[in-house]
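The protein record now logged underneath.
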Amino acid sequence: MKKVTTAVVAIAAFAFASSALATMDIQKAYKEKGKLEKAACADCHKEKMPKKETAALNEFGGTVKAAKGKDGKIDWTKVKLPEQKKN
């Protein structure tokens, strides 16, 4: 019984954690919508290279997370894309 409980908890934890991560599909959609060459972690996170345990979102990242549906897809009509930085 203990093994079954452990397995169920592990699966639930993985499902919750993976739904919070920025998937490749989300990153690709962000690049296409913003017409960007590449997406960086710092576009949505406060840190340049966030760790999974401490990945705090900035204002834009919070907006993207709020626009994420139960299916894991972003409703980009609810997200105002930031201005591109000029080099």
